# Entry
Amino acid sequence: MYFASRMQAGRMLASRLQDKYRYENCVVLAVDDGGVVVGAQIAVQLHCAITLLNTKEIKLPMEPLAIAGVATGGAFTYNNKYSQGELDDMVSENRVYIEEERFRSVGELNRVVSSTGTVSKNLLRGNNVIVVSEGLKSPFIIDLVYEFLKPINIEKLVFALPIANVQVVDTMHILGDEIYCLDVFEDFLDVDHYYDKNDVPSHEKVIKIIEQVILNWR
# Structure
């Protein structure tokens, strides 16, 4: 499936969610800037707030894939794209480097949150959390979101994505309570490939979208 824009994809997801969640306590948790554009359409339709979870990858020199990642608040997970044996070897050889990068990344994310106020655990607590992305090729971010949410007492974990890789969907089935995914691909190309229009604004405008969602409830 291809979309004219992320806004269109968001409206399509909102139509799937509105009958069940319009009058429930919900918060949309976007995991990327494009996800804010998608998720804003859901939040407007459901009359709920939207927030953004900032994340950072930790990469080893000469390795194409991130070995781990951190999220706002310090949530941390290794990348399960690597086998356990590969992770054991890489962590053993690079433990100090990984810990240094983890500490540095947490500091950067905390500075982002203090300047934008983009995420609040109190906002999520007790609510149905609808995790939204513009599209995911790897389940890595799903694992990271789950680690972030694990200590928070939420009502239900719902995933809503326009497009995803098969492995992402498999992971969402394991970790989530419900999944809304418009299309699934085995050979997932770059996310922009599935949108006719690149309607992801600057990060500053993304923050404005989050702040103004309530004004656009309909």
Observations:
- The chain has two domains: 6-29+42-53+119-142+151-202+211-215, 56-115.
- The chain has a mean pLDDT of 91.
